[in-house]
Amino acid sequence: MPSTVAPSGGSKTQPADDQFNWQQQWYPLAPVSYLDRAKPTPYTVLGRRLVVWYHAPSQQWRALEDRWPHRLVPLSEGRIEPGSGNLQCSYHGWQFGGDGRCARIPQADSPQQEAAACGSQRSCVAAFPVRQEQGMLWVWMEAGPGAAAASQLRPLPLPAELLSSGGDGATPAGSLLGGWYQRELPLSAEYLLENLLDPSHIHFAHSGVIGSPSRAGSIPLHLAGPLTSQGGFQLHMDRQWQGRAGRQGGRGQQQAREIPGLVDVGEAAPAGGSGSVPAVTRFVPPGLVCPGTSRVFTAFFATGLPPVLQSALRSDALAPLLHAFQFLADLGAHQVIDGDAVHIHQQERTVRQEGRRSYFMPAAADRGVMLLHRWLDEYAGGGPQYFPGPGAASSGMGAAASKPLSRQEVLDRYEQHTKHCPSCRQALSSVRSLRQALQLGSASAAAAFAVTVAQALATGPCLVLAPPCASLSLPLVLGVAGLLAGGAQQALGRLERQFVFVDYVHADRK
Ligand code: FES
Ligand SMILES: [Fe+2]
């Protein structure tokens, strides 16, 4: 169950050395393509409200606590001051630099007073280290002196194939296939982690999408290596993984290293690792928002591709095209997430009432879930340790987690994803414009058809009695055009709903 710790400096609840420290970790914050350099954006991570903004003078993204020290209004409502590149509060105009120090107080009574106030610790906001790698912005959830140095010692929780720094600086062996998928869900992180470490649900929860019940069977998961506080654990799956429609991958492997930074789910990976054999791996670093809310990030990366293909995937020329069509991949990802979300949301409510001791897990397929809770209990305080107090996401954290939501709220694709995703936002806007144009076109065609038929009937019976007559061609064309426009409009209406809400009824998906 989620719990909370004192903010930095609260030594009483600091984890012991052999315990996982939830603050001293890199977390995925946002795909860079989702961020706007011209505006600050609010994000919550580990229960702490942050403002993310681009500091042009240093050419870096910054993450500060989303709370002005003057009168505690949110920084994310501010604006970026064009001259200095500072973040300016839109309430009284104070300005902050990328390091969280106050740089300007317009109401100061004298330059001396302004300098003294700007130099005071009380005018600073907490700044969190951030890094940009593989199209993702990562944040280290500890601020204060020493945080930047500590963050440098810990590599980003990316698979080794995607890491370009920290080692010999060589180009990573893997390349992202397209962009990142991000969706914020009304589910606590422990339940999301359970789901990611549970391959046996795929053939049932995603039947007809990426799984098929006829292919289900024993999944003998086993622990590879030790459980450690910082290293998490690794699960191996000694069985041929069977995908949809008879596609078979090699020996699968599921890993949970350095939780919560990395759950690395290998699908169709060849036996013995990636090597020079082409392979595609799904990478799912969970985003911890606050109790009751998590952010799912997904990306696919390829290894073992011919160099020409690798360079094409990394080239800047291809990026805009891949981003423009990212919405197609995202609509597919929604189907998978929806299939899980309807289960997990209710599961969380029930576990809150009954406790997890009621789980009955006789098969080895559940070993990932068992190990997850063993690791959380032994090394990580039983679950994510969210920030309470100043800067926390809400004073009533936990209340949101127990609030029952409607299916529309649980599966709200628009609020959880579309409004944040540039590709889906653009696609939805285009679909809506096209649908409106077709609506207008089909209405005009129907009206013209009616007028033309009426005129033809008024001038003689040839429309009905003599089909080849010349006056037939115009109403026929108008009628067909109207029907086609109506059909296209219906299809676009269905596509539009894909970006907003689609109910997921498991009984209808066999
Ligand atoms: S509250 Fe932001 S400057 Fe006053
Ligand atoms: Fe999207």
From TrEMBL:
<keyword id="KW-0812">Transmembrane</keyword>
<dbReference type="Pfam" id="PF00355">
    <property type="entry name" value="Rieske"/>
</dbReference>
<dbReference type="GO" id="GO:0051537">
    <property type="term" value="F:2 iron, 2 sulfur cluster binding"/>
</dbReference>
<keyword id="KW-0472">Membrane</keyword>
<dbReference type="GO" id="GO:0046872">
    <property type="term" value="F:metal ion binding"/>
</dbReference>
<dbReference type="InterPro" id="IPR017941">
    <property type="entry name" value="Rieske_2Fe-2S"/>
</dbReference>
<dbReference type="GO" id="GO:0016020">
    <property type="term" value="C:membrane"/>
</dbReference>
<keyword id="KW-1133">Transmembrane helix</keyword>
<dbReference type="InterPro" id="IPR050584">
    <property type="entry name" value="Cholesterol_7-desaturase"/>
</dbReference>
<keyword id="KW-0411">Iron-sulfur</keyword>
<dbReference type="Pfam" id="PF19112">
    <property type="entry name" value="VanA_C"/>
</dbReference>
<protein>
    <recommendedName>
        <fullName>Rieske domain-containing protein</fullName>
    </recommendedName>
</protein>
<keyword id="KW-0479">Metal-binding</keyword>
<feature type="domain" description="Rieske">
    <location>
        <begin position="26"/>
        <end position="139"/>
    </location>
</feature>
<dbReference type="InterPro" id="IPR036922">
    <property type="entry name" value="Rieske_2Fe-2S_sf"/>
</dbReference>
<keyword id="KW-0560">Oxidoreductase</keyword>
<keyword id="KW-0408">Iron</keyword>
<dbReference type="GO" id="GO:0016491">
    <property type="term" value="F:oxidoreductase activity"/>
</dbReference>
<dbReference type="GO" id="GO:0005737">
    <property type="term" value="C:cytoplasm"/>
</dbReference>
<dbReference type="InterPro" id="IPR044043">
    <property type="entry name" value="VanA_C_cat"/>
</dbReference>
<keyword id="KW-0001">2Fe-2S</keyword>
